[in-house]
Structures are given as C-alpha cells and as structure tokens.
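Preliminary data (for renewal application), nicotinamide-adenine-dinucleotide complex.
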Amino acid sequence: MSGLLVTGGAGFIGSNFVHYAVAHTDHQIVVLDKLTYAGERASLSGLPEERVRLVVGDIADAELVDALVADAGAVVHYAAESHNDNSLTDPSPFVQTNVVGTFTLLEAARRHGTRFHHISTDEVYGDLALDDPGKFTPETPYNPSSPYSATKAGSDLLVRAWVRSFGLEATISNCSNNYGPRQHVEKFIPRQITNVIDGVRPRLYGAGENVRDWIHADDHSSAVLRILEAGRTGETYLIGADGERNNLEVVQTILRLMGQEPDAFDHVTDRPGHDLRYAIDATKLREELGWEPGYRDFEAGLADTIAWYRENEAWWRPQKAEAEARYAAAGH
Ligand code: NAD
Ligand code: TDX
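Predicted structure:
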C-alpha cells in the first residue's frame, strides 16, 4: 500500500489528513477533489510537490476514477457534501456525491482489487437522549435523521455490501464532530470564531442544549492511519475522544477565549429535526488497534484553532459572506 488516493483531500478533514500523512508516513498521495464551495486549493499549500498531487475532478466521473484507482495502493474516501443545513435546503448534491460518488469509487476498487477505507460519521446512528447514559457502538442500529446523514448511511451500507458480495477489502470509520484548522466557516465552531473576529455575536440554534462529541481533526487522522495499517476487512471502527459538550458551553468557551462577555451571543431559529446528542464509544479502536487521541484538552485545542483563524483570515474571508447569506435566507 504505497500510494494513497485521498478523495476530498482539499476539504477540512481530508486536507488535515494529507498534512498529517505527509508528516507521519512515507505515502505518496494523489488527492481527487472537485473543489466545490467547500474545497480549497490553499488547504494543500506548503506540502512537498514530490509527495502530493491534486487532481481536480468528480468522484462520480467513472472514467477518471477508474484511472486513478488503477494506480492507487489504497483509497481513503473523504469526499462528500458534508453540511446538514445545506442538505435541508437542497438534498440533491448529497445523493449524487455521497451515494452515486461512493458507488463509482467502489466499482473501480472492485475492478482493480484495491484496498478501500470509507470515512463516515456518527450521525448515521441518529441521536441519543440528553440523559441517556449510553453511547454509540458499532452495533447501534442505523437511524439517520437528515438528508446528509441518510446519504452517509446509504454509502456505508454500499461499502458493507461490496465487502460481503464482492470480497472488497474495505473498512469503515464513523467519527464524531471534528474541529481544528481549515474547517469551512459554515460549520459551528469556525462560524462563531469568525463572527467574533468580525464583531458579530455568535448564533446558537435553539437553547444550545444539543451535545456534540468533539475530536481534533489530527486525532481523526491518526485513527484513520491506524485502521489503514491494522484494521480488519469488513469491520467498522468508531472514532471519538470522549469530548462531549453542549453547544452553549462551546459558544461560551469561545467567547471567554476571545475576551468577550459570556452572554454576548444570540439564540436563533433551531435546525429542523436537530439531533439532540452524539456520543462515541471508541473501545474497539482503542483495544483492538491500540489507538489513543493526542489532544486531551479541548480548550487548548480550541485556543489553537482560534489562533489559526486569527492568523489565516486570507484563507476564510472569501467564504464568509456567502455562508452568512445562506444562513440569513434560512433564518439562522
Ligand atoms: P468538507 O465539506 O470540508 O470537504 C469535502 C470535500 O469534498 C471538499 O474538498 C469538496 O470539494 C470535496 N467534494 C465534494 N463533492 C465532491 C465530488 N463530487 N467529487 C470530488 N470531491 C468532492 O467536509 P469535511 O467536514 O472535511 O468531511 C469530510 C468527510 O468526513 C465527509 O465524508 C464527512 O461525512 C466525514 N465526517 C465529517 C465530520 C465533521 O465533523 N466534519 C465528522 C465525521 C465524519
Ligand atoms: O450557527 C450555528 N449554531 C449552532 O448552534 C451552527 C452552524 C450550528 N449550530 C449547532 C448545530 C449542531 O448542534 O452546532 C452543532 C454543530 O453543528 P455543525 O457544525 O453544523 O455540525 P453537525 O450538524 O453536528 O455535523 C458535523 O458533525 C458530523 C459535520 O458537519 C458533519 O459532516 C459530521 O458528519
């Protein structure tokens, strides 16, 4: 497995994976990315040209995908439409990219006998009650809520079927909410950080009681590399770092770290069908593959992330007005 084909490698988590893999492995990397509104060429800047090549294209382009998969030692599949709120406005690119795109990659991997790792989300399991002591495990039944999570669930099930029916050498990982550098400003944490930089009050959906299980993107990357090395074919690994916090706590931590008053935010219209709580039990990953997260202090990771957005305004500024216009149209 020398060369990796990384789909979606110009997006948030994919680009963090490429930076991480260049620093920690010897893999040659080809990134296949369509550079949608969420993909940034600049997220790959500073990487050695002899290690990383960007191909701009669509994962649903069967001819292009076939040629790239034929040359790859393994496929690491991040590319997706990833934002729940967008999926509530227009689900169609979610079905096309997340389902048809994944199918196109699977068919190429089947033809060429290529190792495949599929990146997915804890949202395929639906949500947990706020007072439920339990967490998601690999045995939790699928119960997605939004068009986004339904298409991710569909893509996971395609991967499982290709393993069982065609013997594809594939693994799946379902990770909790990521934070870190290079995340699009439409997402919760960067939206609030860049709002505060702009002198705009953070926006909390509903009462802010919804809980997310935060993990630094670098920890997601180290887990994926470990699964690529030692994961068992056909298995699903849940990735999480015991980072549960409700949205109100996250907004107030951002406000404090950025020198604002704790009540300097606004409540806005809630997301329809808003999942209450996600929580990951990563015992299988920890015990079977010996993985441990590197970031144990959420506040320290958040402070680093705030510093990154302060220092990289040229990266996020072009996204900001369009993202806020979409929120204004949706009442958020
Ligand atoms: P992102 O929106 O930041 O990046 C997605 C990337 O995919 C972009 O670079 C985009 O240009 C590319 N892309 C979209 N459609 C494409 C297509 N048809 N062909 C080729 N490239 C295309 O997303 P992200 O937050 O980095 O998420 C990456 C993956 O991780 C997704 O599969 C997502 O479901 C999964 N995931 C995300 C989180 C999270 O917290 N953000 C958590 C768990 C899992
Ligand atoms: O302005 C906001 N205010 C707010 O309160 C935004 C944008 C969000 N929220 C809330 C909604 C969620 O409860 O914050 C929480 C996090 O929202 P998002 O960043 O949109 O993430 P989420 O919907 O939880 O999904 C994320 O994690 C799982 C990723 O976007 C998905 O790709 C991943 O699968």
